[in-house]
Amino acid sequence: MSLRDDYVARFNDGVRTGDWSPMLELLTDDCVLEFVGIPVGPFAGRDAVGEAYRSNPPDDELVLLDAERYAWARERDRPAGELHLEERDGRIARIRVLYETFS
């Protein structure tokens, strides 16, 4: 399983359970979470990322469409944006989520 696939699986588990700790284990201590297209973040550091997900959790699971694009499970045939992960030493150092409107 790729790091990206593992991240998405753990993200989706967090959506279902509210427990984000398995997903957070994949992040470096200084990981940055950045959203583009919505007025949220950025969040710097694993603790800040964890608090962001705990205080404002997503309400739907991710579905990977290809190497970069994702959809929400509720509308799995409609691309919702792009997910970019930067890896360092086998862990995620940066998460960049692009929200886009596709026609």
Compact description:
This protein has 103 residues and is of the alpha+beta class.
Question: What are the key terms here?
Answer:
globular; single chain; 37% strand; 103 residues; 6 strands; Nuclear Transport Factor 2, Chain: A; six-stranded mixed β-sheet; alpha+beta; 3 helices
Numbering strands along the chain, what is their spatial order in the largest sheet? 2-1-6-5-4-3
Overall outline? globular
Q: What is the fold-level CATH name, i.e. the topology?
A: Nuclear Transport Factor 2, Chain: A
Second rung of CATH, namely the architecture:
Roll
- What is the CATH domain class? Alpha Beta
Main β-sheet: number of strands, strand sense, barrel status? 6 strands, mixed
Q: Number of helical runs?
A: 3
The number of distinct structural domains comes to: 1
Strand content: 35-45%
* Run of helices and strands: HHEEHEEEE
The portion of residues assigned to helices is 25-40%
Q: What's the total count of β strands?
A: 6
Report the average pLDDT across residues: 94
What is the gyration radius calculated from CA atoms?
13 Å
Low-confidence stretches: none
Q: What structural category arises from helix and sheet content?
A: alpha+beta
N- to C-terminal distance: 32 Å
Describe the secondary-structure layout.
Layout: H1 3-17, H2 21-24, E1 27-36, E2 43-44, H3 46-55, E3 62-64, E4 69-72, E5 79-88, E6 91-99
Parallel strand pairs: 1-6
Antiparallel strand pairs: 1-2, 3-4, 4-5, 5-6
